[in-house]
Amino acid sequence: MASSEGDVASSEGDVASSVGDMASSEGDVASSVGDMASSEGDVASSVGDVASSEGDVASSEGDVASSEGDVASSVGDVASNVASSEGDVTSSVGDVASSVGDVASSVGDMASSEGDVASSEGDVASSEGDVTSSVGDVASSEGDVASRDVASSVGDVASSVGDMASSEGDVASSEGDVASSEGDVTSSEGDVASSVGDMASSEGDVASSEGDVASSVGDMASSEGDVASSVGDMASSEGDVASSVGDVASSEGDVASSEGDVASSEGDVASSVGDVASSEGDVASSVGDVASSEGDVASSEGDVASSEGDVASSEGDVASSEGDVASSEGDVASSEGDVASSEGDVASSEGDVASSEGDVASSEGDVASSEGDVASSEGDVASTQESPEAAGRRRALHRQAMARHRARQTPEAAGRRQVLHRQDMARHRARQKVEAAGRSRALHVQTAAWRRNTGSSRECFHFNSIQFILYSPI
Questions:
Q1: DSSP code of 54?
Q2: Distance between CA atoms of residues 239 and 74, nearest Å
Q3: What are the Cα distances from residue 318, in Å, to 2, 80, 85, 222, 297?
Q4: Which of 72, 210, 305, 360 is the most buried (most CB within 10 A)?
């Protein structure tokens, strides 16, 4: 994707360079027109020196020069409108850069989600360590049972009570791991919501870019209107020139007596005409440069070759903006993939929660086994005529342990798990509906952009998540 954006940026740079060359060529044309006006001024001065009767001719030629000045002013207005259109193009490029920044933010959110997954894996490893510790306690209890004798029964009772306390500590630790895993699930859901928000922000940037494209099209239409107005001004100026030519014809009778001086002045005029021809050669060379630049634009933007001047540049910007829209929609699809990945992380975290609950059940089984060892040890102590105070303490500890065990077996925990599962399934179904609608819109926009830019039809179908495209001329 970064390479494609680099190619688009390079193509836009070529377009901007071509527009700059065209503006420079128009400046050369304006300079040549100015030189021609200066040469005509010299002709008027020579004719004025011929005789007083040539004053009318000089005045008429002055009117011609004024009309050509109006034409030059109209050309300057056209150049100003071209510069304004280039400013709009620069603004559109800035919007594209903003969209790229939003894509980078989405990538950062994806990295954060991966960090949450790593944290969940660490919690799983901690739970496995607790399971290993519980297994060690069970082995120790079995060793105590194997080595039991009447003389060490009191020590076994104390050891079993310690093992039971250790197992209860493991149960509490496992429950803490369960709570931590549920917190990770909540954090992952928050990351999913953040990714969805970033996707909505990217779609907003796409809409803003489309608005800028529409504004550029409006500016292009305004520039065409200014060109039409300038053509009208040129036609009016040509009418003034024709009127001035009539005045020149009425004054030719007076000029006939001074044809010798006029011939000399005509030599100067011929020299000026040569300068004009040279300027026209420069204009032709500039036009050739413009044509070459347009060829470069055509090779980098598929549809720029079908337009000319400012209209061609504006249509190229429209095509580039549509490409940015397609790229942004691709980023939206990538964000949807991140959402799906985050949902997978949520499911994995729920599996970790279930595993941790299994560890809790196993630890409770260890507690029950330890209580059985305590009861057996109490029987051994009873057979050795232990004091009633110690027996009462052991019975009290046994009743407390059984009460804690029964309190843990309440249905509230199972009910909470079922509620969380139903909520997750409802959110998953809602996200699937939103994602299906977004993919349909993206496919429609891509198809319409292809038909506008290339003049051909495209039909798409999918097989195992792979998109196949069939092309045919319209």
A1: G
A2: 16
A3: 21, 21, 12, 16, 14
A4: 360
Look at residue 86 and tell me whether its pLDDT is greater than 80: no
CA distance 443 to 446: 5
Please check whether residue 418 lies inside any domain of the structure: no
- Summarize pLDDT for 181-234 with one digit per residue, the tens: 676 766 667 676 666 667 666 676 766 667 676 676 667 667 676 766 767 777
Rg (CA), the chain: 44
CA–CA distance, 181 with 111 (Å, rounded to integer): 19
- Tell me the three state secondary structure of residue 385: coil
**Domain span at 315:** 2-409
**Is the pTM for the entire model greater than 0.85?**
no
**pLDDT bucket at 304, cuts 50 / 70 / 90:** very low
Please state, as a whole number, how many other Cβ atoms lie within 10 Å of the Cβ of residue 382: 11
Between 450 and 326, name the one with better pLDDT. 450
Question: DSSP letters of 215-282?
Answer: HHHHHHHHHHHHHHHHHHHHHHHHHHHHHHHHHHHHHHHHHGGGHHHHHHHHHHHHHHHHHHHHHHHH
- Intra-chain end-to-end CA distance of the chain, in Å: 30
Query: What DSSP character marks residue 304?
Result: G
Residues 71, 313: Cα–Cα separation, whole Å = 24
pLDDT, tens digit, 9 for 90 and up, residues 409-431 = 567 766 777 788 788 888 888 88
The rounded distance, in Å, linking the Cα atoms of 202 and 101 is 10
pLDDT at 339 over 60: yes
The verdict on residue 288 lying in a domain is: yes
Into how many domains does the chain fold?
A: 1
The token pair at 102 is 């939003």
Q: Is residue 41 domain-resident? A: yes
In tens, the pLDDT along 246-298 reads 676 666 766 666 666 656 656 666 665 666 666 666 666 666 665 665 655 55
Q: What is the dihedral of CA 209, 212, 214, 219, to 10 degrees?
A: -160
Neighbours of 124 (CB within 10 A): 18
Q: Which helix (H) or strand (E) holds 466?
A: strand 466-473
Which sign does the torsion angle of CA 217, 218, 220, 225 carry? positive
CB burial of 101-110 (b: ≥16 within 10 Å; e: otherwise) equals: ebbeebeebb
3-class DSSP state of 1: coil
Give the sign of the dihedral formed by CA 353, CA 355, CA 356, CA 362: positive
Q: Which of 176, 180, 177, 166 is nearest to 135 (CA)?
A: 166
Within-domain flag for 474: no
